[in-house]
Amino acid sequence: MAHAHAAMRPPAQAEPGAGVYTEKLGMWVFLGSEVMFFTALIGSYIILRFAHPVAWATPGQILNVPVTAVNTFLLICSSVTMVKAFAAIQEGDQRMLRFWLAATVIIGATFVSVQVFEYLQLAREGFLPSGYVPGSHLAESAETGAAYEGGAPLPHSVGLYGSTFYTMTGFHGFHVTMGVVCLTFVTVKAFRGGYTVQDHRGVEVIGLYWHFVDLVWIILFTIVYLI
Amino acid sequence: MAEAEHKHPNYVGVWVGLAVLTLLELGVAFLSWPKMTIILILLGLAVWKALLVALYYMHLRFEPNRLRILAVAPLPLAVIMIIAVITEYVW
After folding, report:
1. For domain A15-226, which CATH number applies: 1.20.58.1000, 1.20.120.80, 2.60.120.260, 3.40.50.1000?
2. Least C-beta-crowded within 10 Å: which of A157, A164, A168, A184?
3. How far is CA A77 from the centre of its chain?
4. Burial A139-150 (b: 16+ CB within 10 A, else e)
5. Which of A31, A36, A39 is the best residue to mutate to test the B interface, defined by the most B CB atoms within 10 Å of its own CB?
6. Are residues B79 and B52 in the same domain?
7. Structural domain spans, chain A
8. Is B78 helix (H, G, I), strand (E, B) or coil?
9. What's the structural domain count of chain B?
């Protein structure tokens, strides 16, 4: 119905065909390809896990679920700040556009930093894509078959667990990093007054990418950390 | 006014919903229920969160139908891909 969308002024003239402007159509097609990309990673993980379930530790045993849960919440917050930035420029509020965009960049960069910190912690404990580092605390617990940190004994063959974990979260982290870089460009342009009520396509398009990155993490966090 | 009510989705409301669903996921993940039950519940909650982001933050709820079809189109292809690769293991 027209009234539902009338007040939400689109940022540019719609093209015939899909009924949206070209840049938005392009971003959605790109996101479609990204869906296939992450499906390939997650699909491989599902099959590997069903084939060799013993290679995985129980949730929370090795991976830091509380820290990552907070990180997940941070990324969700960044989606809110991103959409608030878009809502601001729809109203023509340049000040709040800049504020919310800057907030999104900062929160996104924080998410990546926490992930890097988590990777360093895991590597220090001996958890790598190739398996446990010989001589590490994890390797010794797996060899002796002792319960690890009060939980079940660790699996011996952990190459599958480590490599799927680092591949999936690593590629997602790379996507977030690229998103932060692009967001920085958009934020700089916003500070220079490059977006108006009539034309703020760049804000919407980078917003779509950023929400997609959040969406993928919602799925990944559940699959990788909680299952 | 009716137009003002439809002006924007309630972004903060959706954020609260996402936060609550995340907490629910954390609660369910460490229960001592059968593993498959936990997996199904967690996946359901994750899909719910993903739908909230897609419909309200990505504004799919308010986009033209042709764009919504485009956005949804990869999903059956993704399912086909996973089923096709699963047959490598099952057979």
Report:
1. 1.20.120.80
2. A157
3. 12
4. bebbeeeeebee
5. A39
6. no
7. 15-226
8. helix
9. 2
Residue type (1 letter), A133: V
Give just the sign of the alpha carbon dihedral A191, A194, A195, A201.
negative
Q: What DSSP element (H or E) covers A128? A: strand A127-128
Q: Do B50 and A218 touch (CB under 8 A)?
A: yes
CB A180 within 8 A of CB A209: no
Q: What pLDDT, in 10s, does the model give residues A30-83?
A: 999 999 999 999 999 998 998 888 889 888 889 999 999 999 999 999 999 999
**CA-to-CA dists, residue B35 to A226, B42, B88, angstroms:** 11, 11, 24
Residue A127 carries which DSSP code? E
* pLDDT interval class at B2 (50, 70, 90): very low
CB atoms within 10 A of CB A158: 25
Q: What are the two backbone dihedrals, phi and then psi, of residue A200, each rounded to the nearest 5 degrees?
A: -135, 45
Q: What is the pLDDT of residues B35-86, one digit of tens each?
A: 999 999 999 999 999 999 999 999 999 999 999 999 999 999 999 988 888 8
Q: What is the pLDDT of residue A9?
A: 57
pLDDT at A105 over 90: yes
Other CB atoms within 10 A of residue B13 CB = 11
A32 contacts B57? CB cut-off 8 A: no
Residue B10 falls in which region: left (phi positive, over 0), alpha (psi -120 to 50) or beta: beta
